[in-house]
Specification:
The protein is built from 11 helices and 3 strands, in the order ααααααααααβββα. It is mainly alpha-helical.
Amino acid sequence: MKPDEWVRQAGLSFSDKRLLRRALTHRSYLNEHAESLEDNERLEYLGDAALDFITAAWLYNHFPEMDEGALTRLRSALVRTEQLARFAQELNLGQALLLGRGEEGTGGRSRPAILCASFEALIGALYLDSGLERVTEFMEPRLIAAAEAALEDERLIDARSILQMWAQAELGETPQYETVGVEGPDHDREFTVEVRVGEVITARGTGHSKQDAAQRAAAAALERLNHIASEREHKQGG
């Protein structure tokens, strides 16, 4: 597929077509075509950095309740080789790559490492051509879908973050946490935190720190949401 045809199908546009061609040029093609002056490896480097920043900023803004460790784990899930290769597959990027005959003959168009690197190069080229805002606009719907899938892995996320994701997706709101009680001596305090999600649900949790109590409140809220959903399904089934 020619670069111009592919870029239209992908919903992208480039003012500088040379940047697009460079982003699609694998080093194996360069070895066989002396007229091509540069492969996509420098753009890959730039795109990798841009993706790290954009993903970190997006997560920071969309998950205000998520701690640093969970943010780091989720960012890693969103920019790992397999995920970036999936983004490339969704765009049919492999069919637009300029590959050497040997690389193409051994399945290079569908190889995850090549797709990942080419997607990073594409991001680098888009950044140079249109700026960071355009790259962010291009990536945001992809990050939303990928984050929703990643959040199904309980190792990546905690109850507060799951509740945050649900509230934003379903209600367009952020859960509100309030410390409503403190008991016990200074060395053995027990905190009670209440979480409210719009007019839909309220739940409480207790713990020996405010963070622990908030996590327990979020977990209780998720249990109530699951109960409500089960009752709704039961009524609909009946």
